[in-house]
Every structure is written in C-alpha cells, then in structure tokens.
Amino acid sequence: MINLNSKSLSSCIIFVVILLCCSFNPITCAPSKNMGIISSIKEISSNSTDLQKVLSDMKRSINRHRYYYLNAFESIPENEYKLNFPLFDFKVLEAKQHSSLLNLDGYNNYRGRVVVKGQNGQSYATFGDVTIGNTFELLLQVDVSAPYTYTFSTPSFSPSPLLYHTDCTYIKTKILKDHNGLMSISEFICFNQHPTTFKDKALDKNYFTYTSTSSAQQHQTAATTNPDDSPKKVTWVSLNHTISVMSYNLWNYNTPWRVRKELLADIIAKESPDIIAFQEARYSAWAGEYKFDQYPALYGQERNQVQHISQALSLRNQKYHFTYLPSMVYPNNNQLQYEGLAIFSKHPILDVSSIKLSRDNSDKEDEHQRSCLRVQTFFQPANLAINVFTSHFSLSSAGSQRNAYEVYEYMSQFQKPYVFTGDLNALPSSDAIRFLSANSVYGTAQIQGKKADLVDTWYYFKNNPLMNSKVVQQQQNNNNLNMNNNLNDILCVNSDNINGYTFPTLDGFPSKRIDYIFKSDDKILDVIDFKFLGSCSKDSIYPSDHSSIVTTFSINRLT
Predict the structure, then answer these.
(1) Would you call 10 helix, strand, or coil by DSSP?
(2) Distance (Å, rounded) from C-alpha 155 to C-alpha 277?
(3) Is residue 314 part of a domain?
(4) Minimal CA–CA distance to 532: which of 501, 508, 511?
(5) Is there a contact between 172 and 187 (Cβ–Cβ < 8 Å)?
(6) Signal peptide span per the entry (predicted)?
(7) What does the alpha-carbon distance between residue 543 and residue 539 come to, in Å, rounded to a whole number?
(8) Which comes out higher in pLDDT, residue 349 or 465?
(9) What is the pLDDT of residue 282?
C-alpha cells in the first residue's frame, strides 16, 4: 500500500490497458453492445458537495455561453475571451450524475492506479477500474431576480438588459468532467419557461401524432372515410414552411484546426441550416490549443470541439441549441481522447436519447465504438415535432450492416417524421445502404429478414422530374466555379449531382459517396433541394476531408 497526498494523486495515475486475445477467449470476439463507454446514472442532491463545486467552477462558462446564445454581435471580436457579459446565479431544479467507465471487450474495463480512501480517511492508490469521466446532467433556472455582475472590463457590452431577464431563463445542460478533472459544457438547451411545460404544450399542438408503427397509410385511410363509408378526397398541401438539415464530418482536430474552424463556421453561417448533425467531434488536447495556465478551468472548454463550433456560429449570429455524445475513447499515455456525435438545432430540443451500436472486437475494421444520437426538435412555425438521428458507421462491411439494422430498429420506436443522417462509411451499392434505402438504384437488401423504408434524399432530388432544372443549374454553377481559378471564396459549391460524391475532398475531387441524409417514408417532409458544400479550399486548406450535405424539406399536411 502506498500513501499519497492529494496533489500527487492527480498526476500519478498510470493507465494500464488489459486486452484479451480472441485466441484465448473466443467468446469475447462476438459482436457486443457492452463495449466502449459504460455509464451508471444516479440522481444527486442540489446541495451535494461535488455538484456545488462543479457549478462554482463552471458558473462563468455557463453564463458566457448563455451570453453567446442571446447576444447579437455586430462583428466578430478580435479576442473573444475578453468579452464583457452578465454573470447570474443559478438554481438547480434537477440533477443527475453519470459515472463512466471504459469497457474494452464487453467483459473487462480499463484499469490502472486509482485513488481510494481507507478506513482511517487517508487516500492511497490501488489497482482497479478507471473512471474516465463524470457527466452532470442539470436543469438550471437563472436567478433573474437577483442583481447580476459583469466579468472582465471591455466596453463592448451593449445588448438590452431586458433580454437577459426574459429569455433563456431555464437551461438544460450537461457538464463533462473528464479523467483529469477538466470540465466542459457538452449540452446546452435554452427555454423561456420550464422545459416540461414547454414540451407538453408543444406536443399538444403537434399535428402529426401517428407513430412509425402506425403508418401514414393507416392515418390517411382513417382520414378518407366518412361515417357512411363514402369516399372522401384527401390531398396533401404545403404549409409554406421549409426546414433544412445539414450533415458534416468535422475531421476531428486535424491541423490547422484554428483555421479550419473559421472556414467551417463561414460555410454553415452562409447556409444557415435549421439542424446540423456532426460526426468526428473531439474532446481532447490538440495541437495549437491556447494555454490557460492562470485559468486552468478554461482548458476543458478549449478541448471541446463542439464548444468551438457553437461559439464560432454564435459570433456569426447563428444561434443553436446543441447536445454532444462521446462515442469512442482513445487511450493515449495518461490522456484520453473522446470522439463522438453532436446535433445542433435552431429550434427547441424537446428530448435527447442515444444508443450504443454493437462492435466486433475480432474485426480490425470494427475497432471503434459507434453510437446513434437522437434529438426531438419542435419546429414552431408548423407545430411539427421531428426526430433527428445521426451516426458514424463502422469501417467494416459486416459492422456497417449491423449498425444499419440497429439504427433502423431504434428509429422505428419513435414518431414520424424523422430524418437520419451521417457519415456511414458505406457506398450506395453496399448492403447497409441498400437495406436502409427504399429508393436505391442498386435494389434493396434485407438484414435479419427485414427491410427498412427510408428515402435517400439526394437520390430522390436527383431523379425527381420536378427537380431536374435545379440539378442542371447546380451542375452548371459548379462547372463555372471550376473554370474560375481566381476564386477566393470558400463558400463555393461543388455540387456533384451526377454521383453525389462527398469524400475525400482534400484534392478537390471527391470520389466516394459515404455521407447521407435519409427521411422517413411519408409525405409530411418533401424534398425540395439538396446541396453539397465545403469541397473547395482556401489558401490550400480544406474545411474538412468530407463535403457537407444539406437537404431542404417542405412541410405538408393532410386536408
């Protein structure tokens, strides 16, 4: 037994990876959903010491993020860390703590020297499971009745004080506390009233109430029948509202991230999509990160890629609620790198959920843990609740087939309409995509005797006769851009409506289609536009190694 003081304990944890070889234990090779991040959840008191310490350390960051969300910026500040913003107190209405372990093979956790306390109260190190992080899931009420203070001293603060007392007065947030004790905001959803009250009112207004297990055809049949069984003509009419969904693989922290971040934000801000699904979003140390030796609490925010994107968009007056889901963890000496999925929405997020996808520990192309993230967002102009899903599939053919089946089974539990998007690491001819797509040119495929019925929105757009003129015009615009060698605008559109290629962008000529946006097979959402963005470089720097894709939908209802 080795006695250690508290200061040395934080720096002496040595991670030891225990890997089981399939040749010695073949059962560990079976595909399993028990690998990766394993979390236990418990409700905690708002007065708990740990929670109060988290809130104390993160009070400034939460207020700063709220300021970014509410404030309208005339220009992007030169030094965003010196912005002047109001500092409010918070009341904790609900609190849960997620304690996370890393499971390596479905049976054995990541282990190393961990800190425990003996009966005499002294701390010592022993060998055991390593907690890779704690997430505090909170519902906060902003105390707008109390006087607030300002942080920093720059004179640029000029928004209406009233805004900070009426808007975003309730915040659903998640605070990730990593294995080094650094903290960051991994979810931020604003409400002007209690979220439960808002959700109940929103779903009462939601016109489309049938679930995926009650098909649109059943719904329509009920609507077409009079009490005397005489036929009644039914038509779908547009509500004159549109909603756009973007999918973007961030290419994690590949250099030069600080430049790429601005290019990504410019592309997104110009398109201004309602909903964005991101893949390969990192939480980790990265080359070029700012050093905050005097303010170590800021290191967590600096290492959260989703925070970078959220703030860059807010400074361009693109305001989004967001949630981030770490899916996989990369051990690296005494550091851990988290990578996962995120969904941003301009519209209120009513609900968030996720599942882990199975992984085959014996398949070298299936070595990374995969997940599916879902949000239910409420599009208020049309009183429409939409379920949006995103995932990043396995590189393995067998793995991607399992992923496709598991995601569709998960989606089928929720109400239509829904949209599924992501980097699926699979070509249109693959069994995974043929299983998902009801309109594949390569025909359909069954997995475990089932067949999905999703609509591939790019393929629909390309082949819809009503869209042909848009397709031709986009292709002509692309040809004109390619002929102009003096273009400096990163926002040029490389629309490939012949093949739909999205990857890799790094030579300017993507050659594979592996990014998709699907929709549920109903008439509520109708595809009216599809775009490819971000395939062009600026000063030989590409925003990502993937193009982003954007589908715009019209919203219809039965009359």
Answers:
(1) coil
(2) 36
(3) yes
(4) 501
(5) yes
(6) 1-29
(7) 11
(8) 349
(9) 95
DSSP-derived letter for residue 491 is T
pLDDT at 194: 97
Positive or negative torsion for Cα 478, 276, 456, 222: negative
Domain that holds residue 114: 2-192
Scan for tokens 């990369």, then name that residue.
Answer: 330
Strands (E), 152-192: 170-178, 183-191
Q: Is residue 206 part of a domain?
A: no
Last residue of a domain, one of 163, 192, 221: 192
Pair 388, 452 in one domain: yes
What would the DSSP string read from start to end of 83-115? --EEE--EEEEEEEEEEEEEESSSS-B-EEEEE
Asked if residue 179 lies in contact with residue 130, where contact means CB atoms within 8 angstroms, the answer is: yes
Alpha-carbon torsion angle 76, 81, 86, 92, nearest 10: 120
> What sign does the dihedral 498-503-506-511 (CA atoms) show?
negative
Q: Are residues 536 and 439 in the same domain?
A: yes
> In the prediction, which pLDDT does 488 show?
39
Helix (H, G, I), strand (E, B) or coil at 314: helix
* Number of independent structural domains in the chain: 2
Beta strands per DSSP E along 153-274: 170-178, 183-191, 236-249
Mean pLDDT calculated for residue range 178-185: 90
Query: Is residue 428 located within the same domain as residue 283?
Result: yes
Examine residue 115 and state whether it is found in any structural domain, yes or no: yes
Q: From residue 419, how far is each of 183, 373, 392, 405, 466 by CA, in Å? A: 32, 12, 15, 16, 22
Position 389 in a domain? yes
Radius of gyration of the chain (CA): 25
Task: For residues 170 and 271, state if they share a domain.
Answer: no
Could you tell me where the beta strands, DSSP code E, fall in 260-334? 275-283, 321-332
Q: What is the DSSP letter of 426?
A: -
> In Å, how far from its chain's centre is CA 277?
5
Q: CA torsion angle for 251, 256, 259, 261 (degrees, to 10)?
A: 30
Confidence (pTM): 0.88
Predicted confidence (pLDDT) at residue 386 exceeds the cutoff of 70: yes
Residue type present at position 547: S
CA distance 395 to 391: 13
Query: Do residues 321 and 342 make contact, with C-beta atoms less than 8 angstroms apart?
Result: no
